[in-house]
């Protein structure tokens, strides 16, 4: 579900590797996470399983900063787009039971949607429908905290129209999985929440996995945070908006069990699982490929309201891994590499963090609105005390970390910002490229 200009994809290093349980140095991995926690870089939980048994768990930071409630292995986090894996399983189970046909077009349910007579259920699953992604709209963050009815959501999705001819290519769209949620509810005459419990959570014993409501910290549900000098709570998306695209709450341990049982044949027939794993134009169905050295994992990542998550399963070694954060200043991909390196006995470093301090007055020279001739996008820089805050057009704000004179970084997205206050310019470095911005 996450909507941000500075996005990352989990693509891990290629090379040669073999798994050996004896190489898993859990103490070093503990020390890695302790370093992140001690430097206020990460809050969240991680779990690793092998052969269906948990072999490592760790929780860091707070479930509720304001009430000083520490996170535990039972702390529950919103998992964002990982929900799509669950929704996909429900759709494929319906197809197995002859309640749905994946080739059926969606005009039966949604005649209001453009090209509905050309779009199949399978094209919704594989992000090949062309239906515009409503979370990309600049006004999305102005209404996402308010409940929406099915009629209201359909009107929003229909208004977005089509971005390309159905099945001509693939492009990620949360709209697809909101529509799939409604198809499930109409097919079974039950709520998505009830279907999740009936067909996945209860049979697998996933007691901490369900459709979320308002965050209830008394039930071990975590709040989420962005760092802006201190951890600051993020507003909550109402569950009626993401639904099967991103409205599930869970734990890393539950996610590893889900992965173990999905790939272990306890949820779907082998042919249905193969459909999920079939990649076209970079997309599977409810799954992405997640390579680590010569190993190939399958899983999904997610993000919503300051929460970020990822799970993956490596069938050859029967290894599952899940990581969820409710507040991070780091790139989740880098953390995933560290965890999997530990599991597979590969070298990785425990980071050493240095700080470059600025006064509130020194931050003032970077403030303002910066625009670029290269892209139609502006970034506004404000401050919170001595912290520099960046916010792209229609995007949530995020805190930058000063690294040296006139230089800042945002590790979550692998982005660096270099200012020239005299010339009133800023260069954004990301993904091997750079874009020059000028202060208005």
Could you explain how this protein is built, in words?
The protein is an alpha+beta fold. The chain has a domain at 360-439: Lipocalin (Beta Barrel), CATH 2.40.128.50. The protein has helices at 26-38, 83-96, 121-125, 140-143, 150-160, 174-188, 192-204, 252-263, 270-277, 332-343, 360-363; strands at residues 42-50, 53-60, 62-64, 69-70, 77-78, 210-211, 225-228, 230-233, 248-250, 288-292, 295-304, 307-314, 319-328, 368-371, 378-384, 387-392, 398-404, 407-410, 415-420, 425-430, 433-439. The strands form 5 sheets. Strands 14-15-16-17-18-19-20-21 form an 8-stranded antiparallel β-barrel. Strands 2-1-13-12-11-10 form a 6-stranded antiparallel sheet, with helices on both faces. Strands 5-9-6 form a 3-stranded antiparallel sheet. The longest helix has 15 residues, at 174-188. The chain is globular, with a radius of gyration of 22 Å.
Write a brief structural summary.
By secondary structure, this protein is an alpha+beta fold. It is built from 11 helices and 21 strands. It has a domain at 360-439: Lipocalin (Beta Barrel).
């Amino acid at each position: 579900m996450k909507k941000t200009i500075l996005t990352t994809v989990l693509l891990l290093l290629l090379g040669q590797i073999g798994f050996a349980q004896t190489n898993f140095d859990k103490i070093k991995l503990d020390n890695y996470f302790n370093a992140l926690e001690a430097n206020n870089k990460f809050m969240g939980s991680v779990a690793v399983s092998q052969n269906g048994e948990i072999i490592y768990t760790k929780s860091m930071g707070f479930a509720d900063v304001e009430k000083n409630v520490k996170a535990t292995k039972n702390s529950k986090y919103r998992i964002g787009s990982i929900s799509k894996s669950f929704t996909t399983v429900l759709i494929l189970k319906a197809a197995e039971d002859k309640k749905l046909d994946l080739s059926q077009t969606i005009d039966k349910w949604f005649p209001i949607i453009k090209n509905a007579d050309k779009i199949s259920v399978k094209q919704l699953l594989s992000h090949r429908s062309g239906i515009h992604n409503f979370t990309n709209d600049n006004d999305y963050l102005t209404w996402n905290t308010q409940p929406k009815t099915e009629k209201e959501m359909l009107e929003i999705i229909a208004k977005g129209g089509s971005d390309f001819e159905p099945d001509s290519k693939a492009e990620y769209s949360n709209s697809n999985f909101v529509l799939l949620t409604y198809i499930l509810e109409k097919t079974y005459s039950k709520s998505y929440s009830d279907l999740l419990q009936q067909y996945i959570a209860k049979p697998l014993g996933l007691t901490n996995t369900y459709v979320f409501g308002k965050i209830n910290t008394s039930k071990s549900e975590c709040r989420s945070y962005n760092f802006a000098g201190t951890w600051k709570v993020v507003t909550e998306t109402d569950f009626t908006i993401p639904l099967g695209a991103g409205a599930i709450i869970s734990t890393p341990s539950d996610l590893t069990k889900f992965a173990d049982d999905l790939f272990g044949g306890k949820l779907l027939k082998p042919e249905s699982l193969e459909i999920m794993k079939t990649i076209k134009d970079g997309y599977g169905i409810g799954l992405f490929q997640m390579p680590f050295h010569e190993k190939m994992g399958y899983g999904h990542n997610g993000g919503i309201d300051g929460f970020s998550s990822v799970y993956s399963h490596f069938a050859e070694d029967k290894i599952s891994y899940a990581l969820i954060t409710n507040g991070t200043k780091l790139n989740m991909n880098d953390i995933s590499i560290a965890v999997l390196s530990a599991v597979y006995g590969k070298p990785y470093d425990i980071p050493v963090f240095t700080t470059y301090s600025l006064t509130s007055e020194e931050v003032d020279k970077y403030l303002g609105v910066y625009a670029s001739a290269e892209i139609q996008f502006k970034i506004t820089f404000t401050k919170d005390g001595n912290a520099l805050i960046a916010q792209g057009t229609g995007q949530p704000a995020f805190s930058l970390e000063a690294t040296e004179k006139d230089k800042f970084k945002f590790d979550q997205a692998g982005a660096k910002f270099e200012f020239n206050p005299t010339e009133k310019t800023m260069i954004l470095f990301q993904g091997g490229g750079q874009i020059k911005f000028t202060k208005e």
